[in-house]
Fold this protein.
Amino acid sequence: MSEKENIIFMYEQAKKQYALYGVDVEKALNTLRQIPVSVHCWQGDDVIGLDGGGSLSGGIQTTGNYPGRARNFEELKRDIEKAFSLMPGKKRLNLHASYAILGGDKVDRNAYAPKHFAPWVEFAKKLGLDGIDFNPTLFSHENVKDGLTLSSPDEKIRKFWVEHCKACIKISEYFATEFGTRALMNIWIPDGFKDVPADRLSPRLRLKKSLDEILSCGYDRNKVAVAVESKVFGIGVESYTVGSNEFYQNYAANNGICCLLDNGHYHPLEYVSDKIPSLLAFYDTVALHVTRGVRWDSDHVVLFEDELKEIAKEIVRNDAIDKVKIGLDYFDASINRLSAWVTGQRAVQKALLYALLVNDAPLKKLQDEGDFTALMVAQEEYKTLPFGAVWQEYLKREGLCEAYLPEIRKYENDVLKERK
Ligand code: RNT
Ligand code: ZN
């Protein structure tokens, strides 16, 4: 039997086995290819950006010096094109403002305009992507003063970042218009203190005022979904972060915007999988940064692990595929960057498929009937169903296969090794 015949054979067997549980595998595969995943551009260059803003700051860090980092727009595009070609399913591109193509324009971040991102639009269209999502960049810049941006007590600094975020809303609107799909614009700020503050309220009131000013710029909410991303702590801001979870959830609820949950931004015993349904009770849109926290670090490459499966289940079984905006956020400079990219994106696709291959109705019924014995047994049974065979078939239909590393190794030898 050839490898291809084997995949088909295994898939047919798997389909029969899942049918015993009432799972329509064909339907699952068709749904999966339609779920957009917004892939971050910043895994390609260790979050350095293209606008010369300065070295990485704001409590996020990349570690490692694996050769081949993309050093300019051309290299980054080439790497994205290669990595994306190995990722199954529908993809969007997630850009940071620091990836502006200024082309000699002497403008600072408060004056970035759609034209500085036109080359990205052209590129994303060439790749046939679903759209572009966006992030103002409030780090790696000299106007981060004493670690503060939108919450700065220095009016000039605060205003600069308000203007930057307003400019980014306009750029997001431009992306939405170009692609005909709603763009997510996510605000994350590094603001916080290393040690015990004297005043925890005033910075938050200033952040609130800044967000009010940003949202008052008048934008089309059908085109742009503005999100705010909280964080429990960061390196160098261990004692206090201005943009806490409670702050942003209340702000978002009161102002008709949405929350972005980064699953590396909570205490290790708090689970984003459990936060998703809490927010779905109140919000039409919930945004995610899918990542993997390891002890104090929030940005390891995403793997096909239990919490990721639970996150995917909450999206699928609550009919929230259109409501939950999935974005990736991790960076690793210690291994091949393209491989890191692909591994994480595929892990998300696997988790979604895993969740789609569950017949939820009988399980929910067991819960409602209080038969927790049968529920536990049934949930365990799912774990050993032939998921891998369905995944292989999915990759085959996407023109891909499980073994993507040889292609990346070839690219490493042909392209990355030249970057000295
Ligand atoms: C940082 C946040 C933020 C960044 C990206 C680059 O802790 O997770 O989302 O990682 O915007
Ligand atoms: Zn994040």
Notes: DSSP finds 14 helices and twelve strands in the chain. The domain at 36-359 is CATH 3.20.20.150 (TIM Barrel). The pocket of L-rhamnitol (ligand 1) is lined by residues 42, 47, 60, 135, 188, 229, 231, 262, 289, 298, 329 (CB under 6 Å).
